[in-house]
Design a protein that fits this description.
- InterPro entries: N_methyl_site, Pilin-like.
- It holds the Pfam family N_methyl.
- It comes from Candidatus Woesebacteria bacterium GW2011_GWB1_40_101.
- The protein is α+β, with helices and mostly antiparallel strands.
- It has one domain (about 45-210).
- The chain has 6 helices and 6 strands, in the order ααααβαββαβββ.
- A 4-stranded antiparallel beta sheet has the order 1-2-3-6, with helices on one face. Strands 4-5 form a two-stranded antiparallel sheet.
- A hairpin with a 6-residue loop joins strand 4 and strand 5.
- The longest helix is centred in the first third of the chain and has 31 residues, at about 45-75.
- The chain is elongated and about 85 Å long.
- The model has no long low-confidence stretch (mean pLDDT about 90).
Amino acid sequence: MNNLRKLQKGHACRQAGFTLVELLIVIGLLGAIALIVIAAINPIEQANRARDTRFKADGAQLISAADRFFAARSEFTWVTVSKAAGGGLTNDDPYGFVTAGDQGIGICGATCATDGYLITTDELKPEFRNRDFIEATVVDKQLMIGKSQGTSESVYACFIPASKATRDKAVADENVYTISAADGTRTSTTICDAAAANWVSSACYICIPE
């Protein structure tokens, strides 16, 4: 009788708990589910996408400010800066591509510790000068501004996107460019169309306006 009770008790214990193998299986399944969730969420991609969205918004804001400055004064900010320094730049001349912290763009003054023309004329808020890309020294962290030859040519803000989603859309929309610091031109390119393309080393940019 005692032996029967012991057997029943042991059987009940085994039913109430998990064996080591069962625990390992459950842990393995939970780990697999966690990996799937992380892959779906992809926090790095989400952060990169948010960064690209900020760059697009800031680029659009900067271009709008530059357009308003030109409409009010009939000259680009770099022409105003050139005149103040005794230079001879005209609206017809190309400018850039240069970083957004360049004095001629109008965010920074003689240094980025002072306000440029777009801020002193209230086209941009002073806080804009504190954007990370203003004094960035690495190309994939910079916002580049430029205009090619001709008064009627548009001013563009270009940057190297960080997120895969932004890059894929740019390729699909054929909005991928190389840019020139010599004459402010941007040239459509397909060198970054491949999935394995290195956008930074290949210097592939997307531009605003598109």
